[in-house]
């Protein structure tokens, strides 16, 4: 077994919201991500948490810090993916992680569209910075499960391919797919 396969994954959970970051409303999306991971993952992991305002520099710097200093294998962001002027999460993600995986954004929007027509407004992307995969989720708490259910079957294999920690899921809850064992 490789060292990557044996070690606990480090997962960054980043809430990006002007108002949640100053306590004007309670962040529900970050906790929804953590609850999802706790339900689905059977392999060991620990969470590094951030709640930050919208903006290009704030988000880019947080993502780079989580990837390079905290050695995150996976970062899940929530919020700031829409078309409003301060929604800059996709641009900041691209600045931190130039190698985009377009299928993630496409599939999350497709699944979200089955629930709300405004799903097309999310510019969410996924991209990797070396051995760290970053996935953007919309800000709405209800979008978390829909989007993660869409992309999580392929996420553990993606982490294998970029040299990140190995993730295992509970097959009764969510089957992850690895073409080669
Ligand atoms: N992290 C979150 N926790 C709980 N509710 C959220 C969160 N993010 C967004 N929402 C809800 O979704 C609505 C629309 O989300 P949107 O991304 O437009 O947030 P926003 O209003 O632009 O946030 P902000 O102004 O704080 O950046 C919010 O008004 C809020 O009700
Ligand atoms: N599954 C799902 N996707 C969704 C939504 C939702 O309620 N559920 N809201 C949409 C809306 S209204 C917007 S504006 C965009 C961007 O949201 P964000 O700026 O909070 O990231 O996500 C979209 N994607």
From TrEMBL:
Enzyme class name? transferase
According to its UniProt record, the EC number is: 2.7.7.75
Which named protein is this? Molybdopterin adenylyltransferase
- What is this protein's function? Catalyzes the adenylation of molybdopterin as part of the biosynthesis of the molybdenum-cofactor.
Instruction: Report the residue ranges that make up the MoaB/Mog domain in this protein.
Output: 12-158
GO molecular-function term, one example from the UniProt record: molybdopterin adenylyltransferase activity
- Source organism of this protein record: Methylocapsa palsarum
The Gene Ontology biological process terms listed for this entry are: Mo-molybdopterin cofactor biosynthetic process
